[in-house]
Amino acid sequence: QVQLVESGGGLVQPGGSLRLSCSASGFSFSVFGMSWYRQAPGKERELVATISNLGLTKNYADSVKGRFTISRDNAKNTVYLQMNSLKPEDTAVYYCHAQRISQVYWGQGTQVTVSS
């Protein structure tokens, strides 16, 4: 059974940091590209960051470049999103995403709220 389980979300003040984790099981994690998406209320889901299967290639949305860092540990079947200098506009549900060719898996999401 494929599972992607996100954790690490919560309430943080503007300028603060959070680290999201996504623990994967039920598939060959190390051959999948991994991504983080987010969806704010009333908005479409958007791509935040991607990392290739071996972690050699990373890409970021312009809105998070320089503030967020995606990483992965294939020995632990886990992908991370380090989020620094958080802004209120980063408030959203953050989703973990795995893809290899036509195989696509989603996590259930974790809420991140940036507010004073």
Q: Taking all residues together, what is the mean pLDDT?
A: 97
**Largest beta sheet, briefly?**
7 strands, mixed
The proportion of strand residues reads: over 45%
Euclidean distance between termini CA atoms = 40 Å
Q: Could you give the count of β-strands?
A: 11
Overview features:
single chain, 116 residues, mainly beta, 7-stranded mixed β-sheet, 4-stranded antiparallel β-sheet, 11 strands
Explain the overall architecture:
There is one protein chain. The protein is built from no helices and eleven strands. The chain is mainly beta and 116 residues long. Strands 2, 4, 5, 6, 9, 10 and 11 form a seven-stranded mixed beta sheet that branches. A four-stranded antiparallel beta sheet has the order 1-3-8-7, with no helix packed on it. It is globular, with a radius of gyration of 13 Å. The relative contact order is 0.32.
Write a compact overview of the structure shown.
The protein is an all-beta fold. The protein has no helices and 11 strands.
Helix-strand blueprint:
Layout: E1 3-7, E2 10-12, E3 18-25, E4 33-39, E5 46-51, E6 58-60, E7 68-73, E8 78-83, E9 92-100, E10 103-106, E11 110-114
Parallel strand pairs: 2-11
Antiparallel strand pairs: 1-3, 3-8, 4-5, 4-9, 5-6, 7-8, 9-10, 9-11
